[in-house]
């Protein structure tokens, strides 16, 4: 379905790519001839940016398999909406999630296990006492103990369950590549670029990293593969819990922070904070941190997350000297861009202090909540300014190089 939608939009983009205005040629020197220029409308600016933004925050996300209890279409929409909001507010968190799974997986089967692809069934139903999907070490343990048969699921069968393929992913990447290319062209010929396009560029850069890490991960798989528990009537003590242990309690220390808990838990789960039990009941948490990483990979993931946040904020700083409708909007943009660029480094520098003091989860949250709130506020301001500044654009913002409009795009 996604492939069909992308193809339809691409065809519409090809029909709209042809210019409708007269072009002009100009020469800037005796030996250099400037390209032909044409005009673009405010709608074309918004549509190309929003569609690229949609590709970055929706189609690039490869969610884990949902719980069998949540089969309703409305719940699936709400789950995707939450991830889109998270991608808009903290896109570097999505990239870090993808990189964490990439470090833990080396092929399609590994991704399928990490996203909750194998679920234990007892008497034909998901086992609700153990209440979790099976981790890679669980599967190996149960196979060695002859409690389950070896799951037979080929890579082709896994890909058949996936809603994405190389063609659909390639179309999205081509759209993002076109968007980046036309912005580079505008910079070369010193044409005004809008704040909306700069903000979309920041998402596009991180989008390439997300797709690279999740290229082999199946997309939008809705049902896990059942793994059936063998009957052990002669040994009643040999239950699944006996081999793979119990699930941690669902209540945890972070619940005491009320409305901040949904914001803090994804971050703490992703980094595998020891004070947060990562429940794997009938589905894998979105930002699952239960799989232990090598120490080197932990350091690489932490450094990569901070660098990605810096790059993301640095791209917004490119609009430092852009034209703004009012002085107040310019100041707000600059302050917010600096905030999202520097805040991750403040958090990184605070971490050694907490480690040296052997701080509890409560102290961790108390120190990091101001950083998180500042970051979220700055991101919200930038998202609003990306659209409000479109009301008064300079004349050069409506000009574009002719050949870029002839390239098929969304």
TrEMBL record:
The chain crosses the membrane at residues 41-61, 81-102, 171-189, 195-214, 300-323, 335-357, 364-387. Keywords: Membrane, Signal, Transmembrane, Transmembrane helix. Residues 1-17 form the signal peptide. This is Uncharacterized protein. It comes from Suillus fuscotomentosus.
């Amino acid at each position: 379905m996604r492939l069909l939608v992308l193809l339809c939009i691409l065809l519409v983009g090809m029909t709209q790519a042809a210019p409708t205005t007269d072009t002009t040629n100009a020469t800037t020197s005796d030996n250099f001839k400037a390209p032909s220029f044409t005009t673009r409308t405010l709608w074309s600016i918004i549509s190309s940016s929003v569609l690229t933004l949609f590709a970055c925050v929706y189609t690039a996300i490869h969610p884990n398999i949902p719980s069998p209890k949540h089969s309703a279409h409305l719940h699936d929409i709400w789950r995707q909406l939450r991830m889109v909001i998270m991608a808009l507010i903290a896109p570097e968190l999505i990239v870090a999630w993808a990189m964490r799974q990439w470090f833990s997986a080396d092929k399609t089967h590994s991704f399928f296990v990490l996203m909750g692809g194998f679920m234990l069934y007892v008497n034909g139903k998901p086992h609700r006492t153990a209440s979790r999907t099976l981790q890679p070490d669980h599967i190996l343990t149960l196979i060695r103990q002859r409690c389950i048969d070896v799951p037979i699921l080929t890579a082709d069968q896994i890909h058949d369950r996936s809603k994405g393929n190389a063609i659909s992913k390639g179309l999205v990447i081509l759209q993002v590549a076109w968007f980046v290319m036309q912005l580079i062209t505008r910079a070369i010929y010193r044409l005004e670029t809008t704040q909306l396009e700069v903000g979309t560029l920041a998402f596009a850069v991180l989008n390439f990293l997300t797709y690279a890490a999740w290229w082999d991960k199946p997309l939008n798989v809705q049902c896990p593969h059942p793994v059936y528990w063998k009957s052990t009537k002669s040994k009643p003590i040999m239950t699944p819990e006996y081999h793979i242990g119990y699930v941690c309690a669902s209540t945890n220390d972070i619940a005491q922070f009320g409305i901040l808990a949904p914001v803090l838990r994804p971050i703490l789960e992703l980094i595998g904070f020891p004070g947060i039990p990562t429940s794997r009941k009938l589905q894998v948490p979105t930002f699952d941190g239960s799989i232990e990483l090598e120490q080197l990979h932990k350091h690489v993931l932490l450094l990569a997350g901070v660098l990605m946040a810096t790059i993301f904020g640095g791209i917004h700083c490119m609009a430092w000297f852009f034209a703004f409708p009012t002085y107040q909007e310019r100041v707000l943009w600059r302050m917010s861009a600096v905030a999202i660029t520097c805040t991750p480094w403040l958090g990184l520098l605070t971490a050694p202090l907490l480690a040296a003091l052997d701080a509890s989860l409560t102290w961790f949250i108390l120190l990091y909540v101001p950083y998180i709130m500042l970051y979220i506020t700055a991101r919200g301001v930038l998202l609003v300014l990306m659209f409000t500044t479109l009301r008064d654009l300079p004349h050069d913002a409506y000009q574009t190089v002719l050949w870029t409009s002839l390239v098929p795009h969304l």
